[in-house]
Amino acid sequence: MAQLGLGFDDAPTGELHRLFFALWPDDALRPRIAATAASVVSEHAPGGRPLKPDRYHVTLQFLGDFCPLPSSLVEDAKAAAAAVRSPVFELSLDEVGSFRGANVWWLGSKHLPDGLRALFDALGRSLAQHRVPVKSSASFVPHLTVQRDVRRLIAPTPVPPLPWPVREFVLIDSQPGRGTPYEVIGRWPLG
Questions:
Q1: Where is the short sequence motif HXTX 1 located (predicted)?
Q2: In this structure, are residues 173 and 17 in contact, taking their beta carbons and an 8 Å threshold?
Q3: Residue ranges making up the domain that contains 60
Q4: What tens digit of pLDDT does each residue of 135-144 get?
C-alpha cells in the first residue's frame, strides 16, 4: 500500500508504526507534569526510568501496530475523528498510581470527568461507524505514564492537582525502538 505524505514517504516498509488517539498536554503543562513526577519518584524511589515529557499523553483509543502503516487506515481514522462532537472539559491529574504487570507509574484523576467519558465513547462510536478497528480495552482507565520499568508499585496516592483544560485530541504515530518523539498526524478541537 502507498504510504501517506505525512513524513512516512521515506520510511522503510519494515518500520513499525503504533497508531493511537490521545489527549496531548500543551507545552505549559508538560514541565508541571515532569516536576510532579520527579517529586513523587524522589519521595517513593520506585526505580526504573522516567518517561520523557515530549511523550506525555493519555491514550483514548489504540488502533494497533502496523508494518507498513496503511494510508487508508489513517485516512479512515481521520474521517472518524472529524465526525466526533464532544465538549471541552477539565481533567485534573490529582493522583499517582501503578499498574501491576506493566511496571509503570502514572498520573491520573481520582474522578473521571464526564467530558472525558463522553469523548472516549463518541470516538469509539465514530471509529466503529467508519470501520476502523480498535485494539483498546473495553475498560477505560485514563492515565499518563511518567515512569517505566519500576521495581516497586504504589497504591493510588493523592498529589497536588494539575488542572488540564482539554480542548482537543490528537492522532499519534509512534515508531517504537527509534527513540524519536511521537508524531502528531492529526488534531481535532473539542467544543
A1: 57-60
A2: yes
A3: 17-189
A4: 977 788 999 9
Which three cell numbers, joined as nine digits, stand for 137?
480495552
CATH number assigned to the domain comprising residue 81: 3.90.1140.10
**pLDDT at site 8:** 37
Number of domains comprising the chain: 1
DSSP-H helix ranges across 45-92? 71-82
> Has 130 been annotated as catalytic?
no
- pLDDT digits over 128-168, tens only? 999 999 997 778 899 999 999 999 999 999 999 999 999 99
Q: What angle is formed at CA 190 by the lines to CA 60 and CA 157, rounded to 5 degrees?
A: 45
Catalytic position from the list 17, 44, 130, 143: 143
pTM confidence score: 0.88
67 domain-assigned = yes
Q: Is residue 107 part of a domain?
A: yes
